[in-house]
Design a protein that fits this description.
Elements: E1 22-29, E2 35-41, E3 52-53, E4 58-62, E5 67-69, E6 71-72, E7 79-82, E8 94-100, E9 112-118, E10 125-133, E11 136-144, E12 152-160, E13 165-167, E14 172-175, E15 183-193, E16 205-213, H1 215-228, E17 251-265
Parallel strand pairs: 1-17
Antiparallel strand pairs: 1-2, 2-3, 2-7, 4-5, 4-8, 6-7, 8-9, 10-11, 11-15, 12-13, 12-14, 12-16, 16-17
């Protein structure tokens, strides 16, 4: 009788650890809130660490005739802001972002980064509608497309009940290729299963926001959706760096939205 025996060996693969990079997150908006720029560093692939904030940077946003110096939040390191009453973006105006780091990141000598964006024209929601059918709710919106070229829109929906305010669905992006210059009536934006934990009940408030956004923001969100929808694998490569609009190979996005919000009470 032959007796077979074997042995096992633990192999720890060496993962490619790319140099750290700066990550920028900023979306200027027409709504009454502070305008912010968030700065962090990338973490190694499969790292369990939270994003490390980039502190003590000089951050400026400027238009043709004015420059705004952002402050760093005391309790939120890496978050830089302008007070609401000091700065409200204006449609059609180009804004430039300038970042000067206290020290370079990832062994690179670069400490200066920049970007620019233009505040898009406003968009107006005429009405929204909630329809019940079988096991689903359908949230639709009516609005007029501007029709001057390709326009991009971002939708966000929030449910408000007596205890909470929370997002009930993912952000949605669309462009106007199929309705350029037309009045869009009752376009279904969200479909929600009635069995979900965030189900809609009588008395709830549904708040729908529609934002006019630039092409760089549209492409960035599309890239994020594409990456996050892929099924992860232990043997897959690290996620691709999603193309943004920050100079010197930094990651992230500096863009703007012109938002309109309307709501209804569920009957």
């Amino acid at each position: 009788m032959l007796e077979l025996s074997g042995c096992t060996k633990t192999i720890t693969p060496e993962l490619d650890t790319s140099p750290e990079k700066l990550v920028v997150e900023s979306l200027l908006s027409n709504i009454d809130e502070m305008q912010t720029v968030r700065l962090t560093k990338t973490a190694p692939y499969l790292s369990q660490k939270n994003d490390e904030p980039v502190t003590n940077a000089k951050v400026e946003i400027s238009s043709i005739n004015k420059t705004y110096r952002l402050k760093e939040a005391t309790k939120l390191p890496g978050l830089y802001y302008i007070e609401t009453e000091q700065f409200k973006p204006i449609a059609g105006t180009e804004y430039k972002l300038k970042i000067e780091l206290d020290k370079a990141i990832g062994g690179d000598s670069t400490k200066n980064y920049s970007s620019k964006t233009k505040m898009p024209p406003p968009v107006k929601i005429d009405s929204i509608k909630l329809t019940r059918l079988d096991t689903h709710w359908y949230i639709s919106a009516s609005f007029k497309d501007r029709g001057n070229g390709t326009n991009h829109y971002l939708f966000d929906m929030v449910k408000i009940d007596e205890n909470n305010r929370y997002r009930t669905a993912d952000l949605k992006i669309i462009d106007n290729r199929l309705f350029r210059g037309e009045y869009v009536e009752d376009m279904i934006i969200y479909t929600i299963d009635k069995t979900e934990s965030t189900k809609i009940e009588s008395g709830d408030i549904i708040e729908l926001s529609m934002s006019s956004i630039n092409s760089e923001m549209y492409n960035f969100i599309e890239g994020v959706n594409r990456e996050t929808s892929q099924i992860p694998s232990h043997f897959a490569g690290p996620p691709a760096n999603i193309k943004g609009n920050i100079s010197n190979n930094a990651l992230g996005i500096f863009s703007a939205e012109n938002r309109d919000t309307t709501s209804l009470v569920v009957q």
